[in-house]
Write a structure and sequence with these properties.
Layout: H1 2-11, H2 15-18, H3 23-32, H4 39-54, H5 60-77, E1 88-94, E2 112-119, E3 124-131, E4 134-142, H6 146-165, E5 171-173
Antiparallel strand pairs: 1-2, 1-5, 2-3, 3-4
Helix pairs in contact: 1-3
């Protein structure tokens, strides 16, 4: 279970601060980015700690339950990890890609382009808003920053929607 949590957090850019966190902080981080982490995972981890550090043996039924929950958690969360993990993702959004409520292109953005850079190895997300080649807004968040969780949640949902549904998104992989 903890290996799967570490893998998820690594993919979503928490690697630089992962070594400083215990299991509860890791589970909380997943919850903040919108990945279900039921309380039973924390109870199973406590049982593991008691076995590993205090030599308290759980009964057979609790071990079987823990294995079942672990398998279900891993299977459930596997779809949050794309088959090919990448160093960075750049997502380009043109003004004409944004739609009004009726589905028509929003024309008022003109030459505005949004650029989202995601560097999961270093835990950095950067957003640039560009107007006719000139950068007019730059927002940068690092793993652990409160706004980083929001950016990752949006990025995760966008990637999943596009990959699972097969919708066309302009993603460039480096």
């Amino acid at each position: 279970i903890e290996c799967q949590i570490d893998t998820l957090l690594h993919f979503y850019g928490f690697t630089p601060i992962l070594k400083d966190w215990g299991f509860p902080q890791k589970a909380d981080a997943l919850q903040k980015i919108g990945i279900l982490t039921p309380e039973i995972l924390k109870r199973i981890n406590k049982m593991r700690v008691r076995l590993e550090h205090y030599y308290e043996f759980p009964n057979k039924e609790r071990v079987e339950d823990a294995l079942d929950v672990g398998i279900m958690f891993i299977e459930f969360t596997n779809h949050y990890i794309p088959v090919s993990m990448v160093n960075s993702i750049i997502c380009m959004l043109r003004g004409s890609d944004i739609k009004n409520e009726d589905g028509s292109p929003l024309q008022s953005l003109g030459n505005l382009t949004g650029e989202l850079k995601y560097d999961y190895k270093n835990g950095i997300i950067e957003y640039n808003l560009i107007d006719t080649g000139k950068n007019i807004l730059n927002v940068k968040a690092k793993a652990g920053d409160p706004e980083y969780y929001d950016w990752v949640r949006v990025l995760k949902e966008e990637m999943l929607e596009k990959w699972l549904i097969g919708d066309n998104i302009n993603l460039l992989f480096n």
